[in-house]
Amino acid sequence: MSDLAAVKAALKTQAVETPSWAYGNSGTRFKVFAQAGVPRTPFEKVDDAATVHAFTGVTPAVSLHIPWDRVEGPGGYKSLAVYAEERGLRLGAINSNTFQDDAYALGSVCHPDPAVRRKAVDHLLACVDILDATGSKILKLWFADGTNYPGQDDIRERQDRLSEALRAVYARLGDDQRMLLEYKFFEPAFYATDVPDWGTAYAHCLKLGPKAQVVVDTGHHAPGTNIEFIVASLLREGKLGAFDFNSRFYADDDLMAGAADPFQLFRIMYEVIRGGGFTPDVAFMLDQCHNIEAKIPAIIRSVMNVQEATAKALLVDREALAGAQRSGDVLAANAVLMDAYNTDVRPLLAEVREELGLDPDPVAAYHRSGLAAKNAQERVGGTQAGWGA
Ligand code: PSV
Ligand code: MN
Fold it and tell me: Ligand 1: which of 183, 244, 290 to mutate, most ligand atoms within 8 Å of CB?
């Protein structure tokens, strides 16, 4: 797409979902550094997500993580959905959590004890109840299940247990609801992870049916993995459900999307666009933690990085590329891609924002707003949100 008006129009339709947990104190397995002004409740997390949307214009949804975002009291989850709506937001994916309860030391849905498996499935079904209450359409599943030692458990039987649990959850989904299965090659299990790669996730989703799709978390691959190939393959099969965007240098670092390797993000977005995945059918979500940097501006920056990668991918001259590819002109084909990647799209995005009535520099506008100081002043007392809160 090289027509600038069409590129701008496409950029205006972009939607990036932000994760509630990125607004709380979260980070590494070591010290999580508390910050002033951090939300204490899911409602305050929604406030922060609304702030990011107000400055970027492209983050209309916030993903929840259960039980970190447990809502009690009158109205329950429905009241959070209404609160979000009043702030121009909607609640996005509901993330299940079967990794922080003592019962799950040997796994959740793959655990050798049927009682533990039942507990995990009950949680997943309760998450579908939350979809019903909030109007969210996506149940996102990531399992920490796996083993640390050869022989610890039966690899094959664990797959059977997983399959049984997924089937029970799938059967409970409403017509317009989807379940998305996320893979991760290691951590916390180190010897054998039960959903380690896109092949395993894809095989389970294929068996389940059309309402089951795969989530690609960009931080969940071994170094050097060609993630855009995975994206192209999943899109080709109609099985790409969502992204969890973030950056990694070493493991599942959860750094800002586009910070470590903006070229990789561009290559991924190119395959998304090439494969017809730049639609609301694919959920573009962030899954990040901001441990040493200020959270709201870090999320705004991440969204801008995704926008820049998208703009560059939209600028690829597809016709010229196809021509060079067909004629076997290796260097010309590569040059077409690199020309798009090397374009400075910041002025274009500034124009897009101005046309949407936004400040062309969302980070500066946020800093000028005084919101950071206001939150630090007002959000005192209570318990700051974080892992497990
Ligand atoms: C696991 O590392 C993961 O990527 C999953 O998406 C979780 O839900 C999320 O991080 C938060 O722990
Ligand atoms: Mn993730």
Answer: 244
* CATH code at position 67: 3.20.20.150
**343 found inside a domain:** no
Q: Is residue 190 part of a domain?
A: yes
pTM: 0.97
Between CA 121 and CA 128 the distance in angstroms is: 11
Q: Give the model confidence (pLDDT) of 346-371 as tens digits.
A: 999 999 999 999 999 999 999 999 99
Helix axes 155-172, 198-208, angle to 10 degrees: 50
- What pLDDT score was predicted for residue 284? 98
User: By three-state DSSP, how is residue 36 classified?
Assistant: coil
The whole-angstrom separation of Cα 68 and Cα 26 is 12
Ligand 1-lining residues (CB < 6 angstroms): 95, 142, 182, 184, 217, 244, 252, 287
Q: Does 337 have pLDDT greater than 80?
A: yes
**pLDDT band, very low/low/confident/very high, at 389 (cuts 50, 70, 90):** very low
Closest-CA residue, ligand 1 atom 6, reads 142
- Assess if residue 41 is contained within a domain: yes
Number of structural domains (the chain) is 1
The rounded distance, in Å, linking the Cα atoms of 48 and 54 is 10
CA gap 140, 91 in Å, rounded: 13
> Residue 222: which domain range?
15-313
Ligand 1, pocket-test mutation among 28, 243, 287, most atoms within 8 A of CB: 287
- Determine the average pLDDT of the residues in 376-388: 91
Among protein residues, the one whose CA lies closest to atom 7 of ligand 1? 142
Inside any domain, residue 321:
no
- CA atoms of 322 and 317, how far apart (whole Å): 9
Give bridge partners of residue 212 from the DSSP assignment. 179
Q: How confident is the model at residue 388 (pLDDT cuts 50, 70, 90)?
A: low
Task: Provide the pLDDT for residue 339.
Answer: 98
